[in-house]
Amino acid sequence: MFRVMSLICIPPLLSVLPAKAQEDDVRWITGTLGYVQRIALPPKARATVVAEGRFGAMLGETTLNPDGKQVPLPFEMAVPPGLAGEVSAVIRVHGEPRWVLRGLAFETGREPVDLGELTLEPVTPIAFATELVCGDVSVMVGILGEEMVLRAEGRDIPLVQVEAASGARYEGVKDRETTVWNKGDATTIRLEGRDLPECREVLPAGEMPYRARGNEPGWYVDLGPKTAEIVGDYGEITREAPRPVVQVVPGAYDFDMPDAGAHLRIEERLCHDDMSGMPYPDTAILTLDGRDLRGCGGDPSDLLIDGVWQVTALGDAELIEPERLSLNFLNPGRVAGSSGCNRLIGGFTLTGEGLQFGAMGSTMMACHEPLMEQERRMLDALEQVTRFDVTADGALLLIGGEGGGVLLEARQP
Fold it and tell me: Which residues are within 8 A (CB) of 259 and not within 5 positions of it... i.e. 6 or more apart?
C-alpha cells in the first residue's frame, strides 16, 4: 500500500557543524522571503529556511519570527563550505504551511551566496501523500480535503476506489481513463488514457542507494535504504552494518561504521576511475581496518542528466547557429536534442567502460544544405561515441572514433 508521508515537511537535523566550523569555517547564505498575494502576515506566522545537501543531510537551518513585520523577510544561514545543496523555505500560519519554495540550488564553494528575493508559492497540501516517479513524470497520490487525488502535470484529479481482483485500484471520478492501481510494492498509473512507465516510490534522500568503489585492491561500499555492505580486497573482506546517519563536515559527507571497522568519506569533487577513466561525480575515501583506500563515488549518469547541454564544438568545422544545437540526457537512458535543423530523440547506454548512443530518430524538416550537412556530422559523431569526460571547468566531451579524439564538446548555459 501507499506509504504515509507529509507533503510539507522540514527534514530532521541529521548533523550539525562542529563548534570550530561554526566559529571559523562557515559559508553564509542570505536572501529575503516574499510572496505575490497581498495578504498580511498575522502575529502567529513563522518562517523556516533550510539548506539540504546530499544523502538527506541538513546543511543549515534558520527560523524567522516576523513579530509584526511583513514580507520581504530577510534571512541569513550558515552552512559548511565546499558543499552544494538546495534551499527550501516555508511560511506557516498557526502551524499550517501557507507558502512554500522547494529545491533552489546553490553550487559548491566557499564564497557567500546571495539568493536575492525568493518568491514562495501558496500551498495546497496533500495529506498522507506518496510521491512516485513514472519514467520522467513525477506524481503524487494522497488526500485533498476529503477526496483521494492524483496530482500530476500541474493538476489534481479526484479518484474513487473501485473493485479490483487484487490490490487497491482507483479511477478518476470524471475520467475513467485515469487509474491508479497499487499491488503490493508495484503501482501502475494510466493518465487520461496514457499508460505511464512503471512507477517507483521516491525514497527519502537518507535512504537512496549509493555506491563508492575503488581499485588496487578492489573495494566497494553499497549504501542501501537500511544497511551498508562493505567489500574489500577483491571480496576477501565482506562486512555489513546498519546504514549510518550521514555526518556533515566542511567539504565532505562522512559515514562512520565502527562495528564494521570502516569509515567512508564522500567529497563533491570530480573523480576518474584509475582503470577505465570513467568520470564520477564524487571522490571517495574508505578507511578500512586503518587503511585509506581511494576511489570514486556516485553515478556517472548524474554528470550527464543535469539540464540541457549546448553544443560548442563539433569536430574542427565552424558551427552554424550553435545556439540551436543541444543535447538533453533524460533518465532512464533517453536523450533528446536538436541538430540545428531537426529535433532528435534516441537512447544512450552507460556501462562501466563507456558511453554509447543508439539509433537516433528525428523530425523530417528540410533545411538549407549547410544545416543539413551539420546535422549529418552531428549524427555521425554521436554514432561513433565510445566514452565521455567532463573537464574541470564543466565542459562535456564526447569521445570516440578511430583516433579516440573529442567528437563533440558541449556546455551548460
Answer: 241
Closest CA to 2 of 109, 140, 198, 123: 140
DSSP string, 355-373: EEE-PPEE------HHHHH
**How many other CB atoms sit within 10 Å of the CB of residue 282?**
22
Residue type, 294: R
Contact 158, 172 (CB under 8 A): yes
- At 20, the pLDDT band (50, 70, 90 cuts) reads very low
- The conformation of residue 353, written as its DSSP 8-state character, comes to S
Pure H helices in 13-171 = 19-24
* CA neighbor of 61 nearest in space, from 10, 23, 113: 10
The SS3 of residue 20 is helix
Buried b (16+ CB within 10 A) or exposed e, 267-279: bbbbbebeeeebb
Query: What span, in angstroms and rounded, lies between the C-alpha atoms of 391 and 124?
Result: 43
Contact (Cβ atoms closer than 8 angstroms) between residue 300 and residue 278: yes
Tell me what pLDDT residue 266 has: 98
What is the C-alpha to C-alpha distance for residues 4 and 2, in angstroms, rounded to an integer? 6
| pLDDT digits 0-9 by tens, 271-309 | 999 999 999 999 999 999 999 999 999 999 999 997 899
Find out whether 16 and 61 touch, Cβ atoms under 8 Å. no
Give 409's contacts (C-beta < 8 A, 6+ positions apart): 311, 312, 313, 314, 395, 396, 397, 398
pLDDT for residue 22: 47
Cα dihedral across residues 361, 363, 366, 369: positive or negative: negative
DSSP, res 184: T
Task: Identify the residue whose cell numbers are 563536515.
Answer: 249
Longest dimension (CA), the chain: 70
Coil, helix or strand at residue 377: helix
Residue 265's nearest CA partner among 208, 204, 214 is 214
Q: Find cell 571497522 and name the residue.
A: 261
Q: Please name every residue paired with 49 in a beta bridge, in sequence order, or none if there are none.
A: 62, 89
The per-residue pLDDT for range 24-62, each reduced to its tens digit, is 689 999 999 999 998 899 888 999 999 999 999 999 999
Burial (CB count <10 Å: 0-12, 13-18, 19+), residue 236: exposed
304 Cβ contact list (under 8 Å, min separation 6): 329, 350, 388, 396
> In angstroms, what CA-CA distances link 314 with 179, 303, 317?
46, 20, 7
Residue located via cell numbers 487520461: 192
Q: Return the C-alpha cell found at 238.
A: 565482506
